[in-house]
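Consider this one:
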Amino acid sequence: MRNPLIDLLQAIATHGSISAAARALHLSYRHVWGELKRWEQVLGSELLVWEKGQSARLTEFGSKLMWAEGQAQARLAPQIEALRSELERAFAVAFDPDAHVVTLYASHDHALGELREVALSNEPDGFAETAPQQLHLDIRFCGSVDAIRGLNEGRCVMAGFHTLHSPAPGSLAEKTYKPLLKPGLHKIIGFASRMQGLMVARGNPLGLHKLQDVAHTKARFINRALGTGTRVVLDGLLEQAGIASHALWGYGNTEPSHSAVAHAIASGAGDAGLGIESAARSQGLDFVPLAQEQYHLVCLKSALEDPAIQALLALLQSTRWQAHLAAMPGYAPVQSGQVQSLRKVLPWWDFPVKARARRTAYKP
């Protein structure tokens, strides 16, 4: 999906000369020069500014080409991951019929991508007495609401969504997720604690430290789509702060993932967006923490004993995975792999205690 020309342009922009770029890419100067001239002919536009005695630099067209490729990659990442999961699942079934496959619809999250890689690596825990079972995670990234609907409609066996830590009764999170979840039918599985915050340009030039700052400075905001967990979190935070959604300049401008929001800000298309720290760091952005949240996994209670679900729980509880998760920026392994009560994690249901049996009927 990535054109080699972009690597050439990136190396020249970073190192300031063709010779230094060639060394960084382990290519010859002649090859890099030839490729650049060939692409200029194919594209019909110059890619570099050639000035004697000056460092090589990209033309405006070259810079825009590099930006466009990065934006396309960021926007297509969820779809690319979905295609990759589909291929992995197909070949897992074809070559290893005893392998466990878990189809997971989930809100976009970097740690889930890492979990899939750890599962595929199939390395021993170091503390386990037996080798881990082969586990393939078929992950489809979508909004939190769509993920839970997919579970309820039988399109997946597990869903991933996230809420602020201990969401209050009456909150937007309750209004969004309570109709989709039922105690006794669903079971919550702990996955991770993660930080949501403002992703801003390096150095935070606009001095954005809270959502009120974004509104007051009219900073260009990049939002997530309706139905995503991060959109629910944002609207909940705005509600708590007493800020109208239209007060955020660009509230209607949306991107499909944390990575796409981060890239839009890094490219200068926006000034701020709500997202996770790992996405901000991957694009060289600064991150301003705003709220701690829990990322949950949910499945039907009847599926808990399935071998595939048990294999996933074992992986989530492993020392190997929890150490990996703890090393990711903004994440912590809180009750990872632990089956929890829906009513305790999301205290939105208030079932009255059954009345005691009536006393014997009155006898006149």
